[in-house]
Protein backbone atom coordinates (compact mmCIF):
# COMPACT_ATOMS: atom_id res chain seq x y z
CA UNK A 1 0.00 0.00 0.00
CA UNK A 2 1.44 3.35 -0.97
CA UNK A 3 1.77 6.11 1.57
CA UNK A 4 -0.48 9.10 0.83
CA UNK A 5 1.35 12.38 0.24
CA UNK A 6 1.44 14.82 3.16
CA UNK A 7 -1.54 17.14 3.34
CA UNK A 8 -0.69 20.60 2.10
CA UNK A 9 -1.60 23.50 4.32
CA UNK A 10 -4.33 25.67 2.83
CA UNK A 11 -3.27 29.02 1.53
CA UNK A 12 -4.50 32.08 3.40
CA UNK A 13 -7.46 33.79 1.81
CA UNK A 14 -6.58 36.34 -0.82
CA UNK A 15 -7.16 40.03 -0.33
CA UNK A 16 -9.58 41.76 -2.58
CA UNK A 17 -8.96 45.39 -3.35
CA UNK A 18 -6.88 45.88 -0.20
CA UNK A 19 -9.47 44.50 2.24
CA UNK A 20 -7.88 41.78 4.42
CA UNK A 21 -9.99 38.84 5.54
CA UNK A 22 -9.43 38.32 9.29
CA UNK A 23 -7.78 34.99 10.15
CA UNK A 24 -9.71 32.14 11.76
CA UNK A 25 -8.91 30.36 15.03
CA UNK A 26 -9.23 26.81 13.71
CA UNK A 27 -7.41 24.77 11.12
CA UNK A 28 -3.66 24.30 10.83
CA UNK A 29 -3.07 28.04 10.68
CA UNK A 30 -5.30 28.90 13.62
CA UNK A 31 -2.63 28.65 16.35
CA UNK A 32 -0.35 30.94 14.37
CA UNK A 33 -3.11 33.54 14.16
CA UNK A 34 -4.00 33.17 17.84
CA UNK A 35 -0.52 33.37 19.35
CA UNK A 36 0.09 37.14 19.05
CA UNK A 37 -3.52 37.86 20.02
CA UNK A 38 -3.11 35.83 23.20
CA UNK A 39 -0.10 37.90 24.14
CA UNK A 40 -2.23 41.00 23.76
CA UNK A 41 -4.99 39.48 25.91
CA UNK A 42 -2.62 38.39 28.66
CA UNK A 43 -0.93 41.79 28.77
CA UNK A 44 -4.31 43.52 28.96
CA UNK A 45 -5.50 41.21 31.75
CA UNK A 46 -2.37 42.00 33.75
CA UNK A 47 -2.67 45.76 33.20
CA UNK A 48 -6.36 45.78 34.10
CA UNK A 49 -5.93 43.80 37.30
CA UNK A 50 -2.97 45.98 38.34
CA UNK A 51 -4.97 49.15 37.72
CA UNK A 52 -7.94 47.86 39.73
CA UNK A 53 -5.83 47.25 42.86
CA UNK A 54 -8.48 45.29 44.67
CA UNK A 55 -11.33 42.82 44.38
CA UNK A 56 -13.59 45.12 42.36
CA UNK A 57 -13.51 48.59 40.79
CA UNK A 58 -14.18 51.57 43.08
CA UNK A 59 -16.91 54.14 42.65
CA UNK A 60 -20.08 52.09 42.40
CA UNK A 61 -22.34 51.43 39.38
CA UNK A 62 -22.43 54.94 37.90
CA UNK A 63 -18.65 55.41 38.04
CA UNK A 64 -18.00 52.02 36.44
CA UNK A 65 -20.59 52.62 33.71
CA UNK A 66 -19.05 56.04 32.97
CA UNK A 67 -15.58 54.51 32.58
CA UNK A 68 -16.98 51.89 30.23
CA UNK A 69 -18.75 54.49 28.08
CA UNK A 70 -15.62 56.62 27.91
CA UNK A 71 -13.37 53.73 26.92
CA UNK A 72 -15.73 52.20 24.37
CA UNK A 73 -17.07 55.29 22.65
CA UNK A 74 -19.06 54.00 19.69
CA UNK A 75 -19.90 50.35 20.25
CA UNK A 76 -20.27 49.88 16.49
CA UNK A 77 -17.85 52.37 14.85
CA UNK A 78 -18.00 53.07 11.11
CA UNK A 79 -14.44 51.80 10.74
CA UNK A 80 -12.72 49.22 12.92
CA UNK A 81 -9.70 49.95 15.11
CA UNK A 82 -7.91 46.67 14.37
CA UNK A 83 -7.56 43.46 16.34
CA UNK A 84 -4.71 44.47 18.65
CA UNK A 85 -6.23 47.78 19.77
CA UNK A 86 -9.73 46.35 20.19
CA UNK A 87 -8.52 43.39 22.21
CA UNK A 88 -6.20 45.42 24.40
CA UNK A 89 -8.70 48.20 25.11
CA UNK A 90 -11.71 46.06 25.90
CA UNK A 91 -9.97 43.22 27.74
CA UNK A 92 -8.12 45.73 29.90
CA UNK A 93 -11.42 47.53 30.53
CA UNK A 94 -13.10 44.28 31.53
CA UNK A 95 -10.25 43.26 33.85
CA UNK A 96 -10.03 46.68 35.49
CA UNK A 97 -13.79 46.70 36.01
CA UNK A 98 -14.14 43.08 37.17
CA UNK A 99 -15.20 41.65 40.49
CA UNK A 100 -12.34 39.16 40.46
CA UNK A 101 -12.99 35.95 42.47
CA UNK A 102 -9.23 35.30 42.46
CA UNK A 103 -8.87 38.23 44.88
CA UNK A 104 -9.09 36.89 48.48
CA UNK A 105 -11.48 39.66 49.56
CA UNK A 106 -13.93 38.89 46.74
CA UNK A 107 -15.93 36.41 48.78
CA UNK A 108 -19.61 37.15 48.35
CA UNK A 109 -20.97 34.51 46.03
CA UNK A 110 -20.72 30.89 44.90
CA UNK A 111 -18.49 32.10 42.08
CA UNK A 112 -15.10 30.42 42.10
CA UNK A 113 -11.75 31.59 40.72
CA UNK A 114 -11.14 29.13 37.86
CA UNK A 115 -7.97 27.10 37.56
CA UNK A 116 -5.56 28.35 34.91
CA UNK A 117 -5.42 24.93 33.26
CA UNK A 118 -9.22 24.78 33.00
CA UNK A 119 -9.27 28.23 31.43
CA UNK A 120 -6.59 27.20 28.95
CA UNK A 121 -8.65 24.14 28.01
CA UNK A 122 -11.68 26.37 27.50
CA UNK A 123 -9.67 28.40 25.00
CA UNK A 124 -9.28 25.29 22.86
CA UNK A 125 -13.05 24.83 22.84
CA UNK A 126 -13.55 28.41 21.66
CA UNK A 127 -10.88 28.00 18.98
CA UNK A 128 -12.30 24.79 17.53
CA UNK A 129 -15.95 25.76 18.13
CA UNK A 130 -17.53 22.28 18.10
CA UNK A 131 -21.24 21.96 18.73
CA UNK A 132 -22.68 18.96 20.52
CA UNK A 133 -25.94 18.72 18.65
CA UNK A 134 -24.75 16.08 16.19
CA UNK A 135 -21.82 13.67 16.06
CA UNK A 136 -20.51 15.03 12.76
CA UNK A 137 -19.96 18.43 14.43
CA UNK A 138 -18.08 17.07 17.45
CA UNK A 139 -16.76 13.51 16.99
CA UNK A 140 -14.10 13.44 19.72
CA UNK A 141 -15.93 15.88 22.01
CA UNK A 142 -19.05 13.70 22.08
CA UNK A 143 -17.01 10.62 22.99
CA UNK A 144 -15.12 12.55 25.66
CA UNK A 145 -18.36 13.86 27.16
CA UNK A 146 -19.76 10.33 27.39
CA UNK A 147 -16.66 9.09 29.24
CA UNK A 148 -16.41 11.96 31.72
CA UNK A 149 -20.12 12.23 32.52
CA UNK A 150 -20.20 8.49 33.22
CA UNK A 151 -17.24 8.85 35.59
CA UNK A 152 -18.86 11.75 37.46
CA UNK A 153 -22.19 9.93 37.65
CA UNK A 154 -20.32 7.02 39.26
CA UNK A 155 -19.05 9.43 41.94
CA UNK A 156 -22.63 10.33 42.80
CA UNK A 157 -23.99 6.78 42.46
CA UNK A 158 -21.09 4.45 43.32
CA UNK A 159 -23.37 1.41 43.70
CA UNK A 160 -25.35 1.94 40.48
CA UNK A 161 -24.03 0.18 37.38
CA UNK A 162 -25.78 2.35 34.81
CA UNK A 163 -25.99 5.87 36.28
CA UNK A 164 -25.56 8.75 33.86
CA UNK A 165 -25.16 12.53 33.86
CA UNK A 166 -25.99 15.38 31.50
CA UNK A 167 -23.93 18.54 31.07
CA UNK A 168 -25.84 21.72 31.87
CA UNK A 169 -25.12 25.43 32.23
CA UNK A 170 -25.44 25.19 36.02
CA UNK A 171 -27.75 24.55 38.92
CA UNK A 172 -30.72 26.40 37.49
CA UNK A 173 -30.83 24.32 34.31
CA UNK A 174 -30.11 21.11 36.24
CA UNK A 175 -32.96 21.75 38.67
CA UNK A 176 -35.31 22.52 35.83
CA UNK A 177 -34.32 19.29 34.07
CA UNK A 178 -34.88 17.33 37.28
CA UNK A 179 -38.43 18.65 37.54
CA UNK A 180 -39.04 17.95 33.86
CA UNK A 181 -37.89 14.33 34.19
CA UNK A 182 -40.11 13.90 37.26
CA UNK A 183 -43.09 15.30 35.38
CA UNK A 184 -42.50 13.02 32.41
CA UNK A 185 -42.22 9.98 34.69
CA UNK A 186 -45.15 10.71 36.99
CA UNK A 187 -47.41 13.28 35.34
CA UNK A 188 -48.41 16.45 37.16
CA UNK A 189 -46.02 16.08 40.05
CA UNK A 190 -46.19 18.33 43.12
CA UNK A 191 -42.88 19.84 44.23
CA UNK A 192 -42.15 19.85 47.97
CA UNK A 193 -39.08 21.76 49.11
CA UNK A 194 -37.75 23.57 52.16
CA UNK A 195 -37.77 27.29 52.80
CA UNK A 196 -34.02 27.05 52.26
CA UNK A 197 -34.34 25.71 48.70
CA UNK A 198 -32.81 27.55 45.76
CA UNK A 199 -35.15 29.95 43.98
CA UNK A 200 -34.64 28.13 40.68
CA UNK A 201 -36.83 25.25 41.86
CA UNK A 202 -39.87 27.51 42.26
CA UNK A 203 -39.14 29.09 38.90
CA UNK A 204 -38.81 25.68 37.27
CA UNK A 205 -42.20 24.61 38.63
CA UNK A 206 -43.70 27.76 37.14
CA UNK A 207 -42.00 27.28 33.77
CA UNK A 208 -43.17 23.66 33.55
CA UNK A 209 -46.76 24.47 34.47
CA UNK A 210 -46.63 22.46 37.69
CA UNK A 211 -48.79 23.26 40.73
CA UNK A 212 -47.57 25.80 43.25
CA UNK A 213 -44.77 24.16 45.27
CA UNK A 214 -45.39 23.20 48.87
CA UNK A 215 -42.80 24.87 51.13
CA UNK A 216 -41.70 23.05 54.27
CA UNK A 217 -40.23 24.96 57.24
CA UNK A 218 -36.45 25.05 57.64
CA UNK A 219 -36.17 26.72 61.07
CA UNK A 220 -32.45 26.04 61.55
CA UNK A 221 -31.59 26.64 57.90
CA UNK A 222 -32.20 23.02 56.90
CA UNK A 223 -35.37 21.20 55.91
CA UNK A 224 -37.24 19.91 58.96
CA UNK A 225 -37.89 16.13 58.64
CA UNK A 226 -40.86 16.16 61.02
CA UNK A 227 -42.56 18.87 59.00
CA UNK A 228 -41.73 16.97 55.80
CA UNK A 229 -43.28 13.80 57.21
CA UNK A 230 -46.49 15.68 58.07
CA UNK A 231 -46.60 17.19 54.57
CA UNK A 232 -46.07 13.86 52.80
CA UNK A 233 -48.75 12.23 54.95
CA UNK A 234 -51.35 14.83 53.97
CA UNK A 235 -50.35 15.49 50.36
CA UNK A 236 -51.72 13.29 47.58
CA UNK A 237 -49.18 12.05 45.05
CA UNK A 238 -47.29 12.09 42.85
CA UNK A 239 -44.74 14.13 44.82
CA UNK A 240 -41.19 15.29 44.13
CA UNK A 241 -39.18 16.23 47.22
CA UNK A 242 -36.22 18.55 46.60
CA UNK A 243 -33.55 18.58 49.29
CA UNK A 244 -30.45 20.78 49.38
CA UNK A 245 -26.81 19.83 49.94
CA UNK A 246 -25.19 23.22 50.35
CA UNK A 247 -27.64 26.08 50.72
CA UNK A 248 -26.89 29.35 48.97
CA UNK A 249 -27.21 31.41 52.15
CA UNK A 250 -25.20 29.41 54.66
CA UNK A 251 -23.81 26.31 52.93
CA UNK A 252 -25.95 24.01 55.07
CA UNK A 253 -26.84 20.42 54.17
CA UNK A 254 -30.30 19.01 54.74
CA UNK A 255 -30.55 15.71 56.70
CA UNK A 256 -30.32 13.62 53.54
CA UNK A 257 -30.64 10.09 55.02
CA UNK A 258 -33.79 11.01 56.96
CA UNK A 259 -35.30 12.73 53.91
CA UNK A 260 -34.50 9.72 51.73
CA UNK A 261 -36.15 7.40 54.29
CA UNK A 262 -39.30 9.54 54.26
CA UNK A 263 -39.41 9.60 50.46
CA UNK A 264 -39.05 5.82 50.37
CA UNK A 265 -41.80 5.34 52.95
CA UNK A 266 -44.23 7.64 51.11
CA UNK A 267 -43.33 6.69 47.55
CA UNK A 268 -42.07 10.17 46.72
CA UNK A 269 -39.40 10.92 44.16
CA UNK A 270 -36.26 12.61 45.53
CA UNK A 271 -34.09 15.27 43.91
CA UNK A 272 -31.06 16.71 45.71
CA UNK A 273 -29.70 20.09 44.72
CA UNK A 274 -25.99 19.64 45.46
CA UNK A 275 -24.85 22.46 43.21
CA UNK A 276 -22.63 23.76 46.01
CA UNK A 277 -21.99 20.75 48.19
CA UNK A 278 -21.48 18.18 45.44
CA UNK A 279 -17.79 18.99 45.26
CA UNK A 280 -17.36 17.43 48.71
CA UNK A 281 -17.47 14.06 46.92
CA UNK A 282 -13.85 14.58 45.84
CA UNK A 283 -12.62 14.80 49.45
CA UNK A 284 -12.18 11.74 51.64
CA UNK A 285 -12.48 14.03 54.67
CA UNK A 286 -15.69 15.75 53.58
CA UNK A 287 -17.72 13.29 51.53
CA UNK A 288 -19.42 11.71 54.56
CA UNK A 289 -21.40 14.96 54.82
CA UNK A 290 -23.20 13.79 51.67
CA UNK A 291 -24.34 10.41 53.02
CA UNK A 292 -27.71 9.69 51.43
CA UNK A 293 -26.93 11.55 48.21
CA UNK A 294 -26.92 8.33 46.17
CA UNK A 295 -30.49 7.60 47.22
CA UNK A 296 -31.83 10.50 45.14
CA UNK A 297 -33.32 9.90 41.71
CA UNK A 298 -31.54 13.00 40.39
CA UNK A 299 -28.72 15.18 41.70
CA UNK A 300 -27.62 18.67 40.65
CA UNK A 301 -23.87 19.41 40.57
CA UNK A 302 -21.96 22.57 39.73
CA UNK A 303 -18.24 22.34 39.07
CA UNK A 304 -17.99 26.10 38.64
CA UNK A 305 -18.36 26.19 42.43
CA UNK A 306 -16.32 23.54 44.29
CA UNK A 307 -14.66 22.40 41.06
CA UNK A 308 -12.81 25.57 40.05
CA UNK A 309 -14.08 25.57 36.47
CA UNK A 310 -14.89 28.58 34.32
CA UNK A 311 -18.62 29.09 33.90
CA UNK A 312 -20.45 27.04 32.75
CA UNK A 313 -19.84 23.60 34.27
CA UNK A 314 -23.11 22.14 35.56
CA UNK A 315 -24.32 18.55 35.59
CA UNK A 316 -27.49 16.63 36.34
CA UNK A 317 -26.77 13.08 37.51
CA UNK A 318 -29.51 10.46 37.17
CA UNK A 319 -29.63 7.11 38.94
CA UNK A 320 -31.76 5.50 36.22
CA UNK A 321 -30.67 6.43 32.68
CA UNK A 322 -34.12 5.43 31.36
CA UNK A 323 -35.41 8.65 32.92
CA UNK A 324 -33.53 10.42 30.11
CA UNK A 325 -35.67 8.74 27.45
CA UNK A 326 -38.13 11.61 27.92
CA UNK A 327 -35.60 13.94 26.28
CA UNK A 328 -35.51 11.97 23.01
CA UNK A 329 -36.06 14.22 20.04
CA UNK A 330 -35.76 13.90 16.27
CA UNK A 331 -34.54 16.40 13.70
CA UNK A 332 -33.72 14.73 10.40
CA UNK A 333 -30.73 16.97 9.65
CA UNK A 334 -29.13 16.13 13.02
CA UNK A 335 -30.10 12.56 13.96
CA UNK A 336 -31.91 10.87 11.10
CA UNK A 337 -33.06 7.35 11.88
CA UNK A 338 -30.85 5.73 9.26
CA UNK A 339 -27.78 7.56 10.59
CA UNK A 340 -28.56 6.44 14.13
CA UNK A 341 -29.14 2.86 12.98
CA UNK A 342 -25.80 3.02 11.15
CA UNK A 343 -24.05 3.82 14.43
CA UNK A 344 -23.78 7.61 14.54
CA UNK A 345 -24.42 8.69 18.16
CA UNK A 346 -27.65 10.56 18.82
CA UNK A 347 -26.83 13.70 20.84
CA UNK A 348 -30.16 15.54 20.81
CA UNK A 349 -31.41 13.62 23.82
CA UNK A 350 -28.45 14.78 25.89
CA UNK A 351 -29.75 18.30 26.41
CA UNK A 352 -32.69 20.64 25.92
CA UNK A 353 -30.28 22.90 24.06
CA UNK A 354 -29.39 22.36 20.41
CA UNK A 355 -26.16 24.27 19.84
CA UNK A 356 -23.91 23.76 22.87
CA UNK A 357 -20.20 23.90 23.57
CA UNK A 358 -18.23 20.87 24.76
CA UNK A 359 -17.88 22.37 28.24
CA UNK A 360 -16.73 18.96 29.41
CA UNK A 361 -13.21 19.49 28.01
CA UNK A 362 -12.07 21.84 30.78
CA UNK A 363 -13.47 19.43 33.37
CA UNK A 364 -11.77 16.47 31.70
CA UNK A 365 -8.43 18.30 31.70
CA UNK A 366 -8.84 19.19 35.37
CA UNK A 367 -9.75 15.65 36.39
CA UNK A 368 -6.79 14.24 34.46
CA UNK A 369 -4.32 16.81 35.77
CA UNK A 370 -5.34 16.76 39.45
CA UNK A 371 -7.16 13.51 39.95
CA UNK A 372 -9.57 12.95 42.81
CA UNK A 373 -6.78 13.50 45.33
CA UNK A 374 -5.80 16.89 43.92
CA UNK A 375 -9.35 18.15 43.70
CA UNK A 376 -10.08 16.81 47.17
CA UNK A 377 -7.09 18.74 48.52
CA UNK A 378 -8.53 21.98 47.11
CA UNK A 379 -11.88 21.23 48.73
CA UNK A 380 -10.16 20.57 52.05
CA UNK A 381 -8.22 23.85 51.81
CA UNK A 382 -11.27 26.06 51.41
CA UNK A 383 -13.19 24.18 54.10
CA UNK A 384 -10.23 24.63 56.46
CA UNK A 385 -10.01 28.34 55.61
CA UNK A 386 -13.70 28.73 56.49
CA UNK A 387 -13.17 27.05 59.86
CA UNK A 388 -10.15 29.28 60.59
CA UNK A 389 -12.15 32.37 59.70
CA UNK A 390 -15.01 31.24 61.91
CA UNK A 391 -12.60 30.74 64.81
CA UNK A 392 -11.17 34.21 64.25
CA UNK A 393 -14.66 35.73 64.35
CA UNK A 394 -15.72 33.72 67.37
CA UNK A 395 -12.68 34.96 69.31
CA UNK A 396 -13.27 38.61 68.38
CA UNK A 397 -15.41 40.58 70.87
CA UNK A 398 -16.64 42.89 68.12
CA UNK A 399 -18.28 40.17 66.01
CA UNK A 400 -20.92 37.48 66.31
CA UNK A 401 -20.56 34.15 64.45
CA UNK A 402 -23.71 32.50 63.10
CA UNK A 403 -22.42 28.95 63.39
CA UNK A 404 -19.50 26.65 62.58
CA UNK A 405 -19.38 26.41 58.76
CA UNK A 406 -20.57 23.18 57.16
CA UNK A 407 -18.74 23.75 53.87
CA UNK A 408 -16.95 27.02 53.14
CA UNK A 409 -19.55 29.71 53.88
CA UNK A 410 -19.17 31.82 57.03
CA UNK A 411 -21.93 34.09 58.35
CA UNK A 412 -21.12 36.85 60.84
CA UNK A 413 -22.19 40.32 61.94
CA UNK A 414 -20.79 43.14 64.05
CA UNK A 415 -21.90 42.85 67.67
CA UNK A 416 -24.70 45.27 68.50
CA UNK A 417 -25.29 46.44 64.92
CA UNK A 418 -28.69 46.43 63.30
CA UNK A 419 -29.63 45.28 59.79
CA UNK A 420 -29.46 48.80 58.35
CA UNK A 421 -25.90 49.25 59.64
CA UNK A 422 -24.84 45.95 58.16
CA UNK A 423 -26.31 46.76 54.76
CA UNK A 424 -24.64 50.19 54.80
CA UNK A 425 -21.22 48.73 55.62
CA UNK A 426 -21.52 46.15 52.85
CA UNK A 427 -22.35 48.81 50.26
CA UNK A 428 -19.57 51.07 51.52
CA UNK A 429 -17.01 48.30 51.01
CA UNK A 430 -18.38 47.67 47.50
CA UNK A 431 -18.27 51.35 46.59
CA UNK A 432 -14.70 51.68 47.85
CA UNK A 433 -13.68 48.58 45.93
CA UNK A 434 -12.14 47.12 49.09
CA UNK A 435 -14.15 43.92 49.67
CA UNK A 436 -17.07 41.94 48.23
CA UNK A 437 -19.20 40.40 50.96
CA UNK A 438 -22.58 38.77 50.46
CA UNK A 439 -25.66 39.06 52.61
CA UNK A 440 -27.96 36.40 54.04
CA UNK A 441 -31.05 36.58 56.18
CA UNK A 442 -31.38 33.81 58.76
CA UNK A 443 -33.18 33.68 62.11
CA UNK A 444 -34.85 36.96 61.18
CA UNK A 445 -31.56 38.86 61.03
CA UNK A 446 -29.20 40.02 58.31
CA UNK A 447 -25.67 38.56 58.25
CA UNK A 448 -22.51 39.17 56.29
CA UNK A 449 -21.76 36.17 54.10
CA UNK A 450 -18.20 35.20 53.19
CA UNK A 451 -18.06 32.34 50.70
CA UNK A 452 -14.48 31.07 50.63
CA UNK A 453 -13.75 29.35 47.32
CA UNK A 454 -10.22 30.63 46.75
CA UNK A 455 -7.68 27.97 47.77
CA UNK A 456 -4.94 30.64 47.89
CA UNK A 457 -6.67 32.64 50.64
CA UNK A 458 -4.39 33.06 53.67
CA UNK A 459 -5.21 33.72 57.33
CA UNK A 460 -3.84 37.25 56.97
CA UNK A 461 -6.34 37.97 54.20
CA UNK A 462 -9.21 36.98 56.48
CA UNK A 463 -7.88 39.02 59.39
CA UNK A 464 -7.63 41.99 57.02
CA UNK A 465 -11.24 41.47 55.95
CA UNK A 466 -12.39 41.68 59.56
CA UNK A 467 -10.40 44.87 60.08
CA UNK A 468 -12.04 46.44 57.02
CA UNK A 469 -15.52 45.58 58.28
CA UNK A 470 -14.66 46.78 61.78
CA UNK A 471 -13.30 50.09 60.47
CA UNK A 472 -16.39 50.78 58.40
CA UNK A 473 -18.74 49.73 61.21
CA UNK A 474 -17.22 52.37 63.48
CA UNK A 475 -18.00 55.23 61.08
Detailed description of the structure:
The chain is of the alpha/beta class and 475 residues long. It has three domains: 65 residues; 241 residues, 3-Layer(aba) Sandwich (Aspartate Aminotransferase, domain 2); 103 residues, Alpha-Beta Complex (Aspartate Aminotransferase, domain 1), CATH 3.90.1150. Helix content is 42%, strand content 12%. Strands 1-7-6-5-4-2-3 form a seven-stranded mixed β-sheet, sandwiched between helices. α1 runs parallel beside α3, α12 packs across α14 and α13 packs across α14. The longest helix is centred in the last third of the chain and has 35 residues.
Write a compact overview of the structure shown.
By secondary structure, this protein is an alpha/beta fold. The protein has helices at 30-52, 60-72, 83-96, 116-128, 139-156, 171-186, 199-207, 225-234, 256-266, 332-335, 337-341, 360-394, 419-432, 459-473, and strands spanning 164-168, 190-194, 214-216, 239-244, 269-274, 298-302, 314-318, 399-401, 409-414, 438-442, 445-451. Helix 6 crosses helix 7 and helix 13 crosses helix 14 (459-473).
Amino acid sequence: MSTPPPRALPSPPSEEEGTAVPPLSGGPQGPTALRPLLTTVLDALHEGASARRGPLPPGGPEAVAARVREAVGAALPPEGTGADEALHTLVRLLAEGAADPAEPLCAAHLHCPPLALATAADLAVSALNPSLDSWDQAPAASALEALVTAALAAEVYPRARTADALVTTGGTESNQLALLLAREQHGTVRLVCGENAHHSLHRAAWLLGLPEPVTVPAPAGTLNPTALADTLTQLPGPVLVAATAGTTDAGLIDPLPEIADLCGAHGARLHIDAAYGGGLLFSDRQRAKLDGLDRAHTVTLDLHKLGWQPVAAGLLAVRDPHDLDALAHRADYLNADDDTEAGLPDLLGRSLRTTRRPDILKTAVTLRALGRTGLGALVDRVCAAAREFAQLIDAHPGFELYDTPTISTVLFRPTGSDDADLARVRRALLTDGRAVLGRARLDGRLWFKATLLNPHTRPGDLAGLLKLVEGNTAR
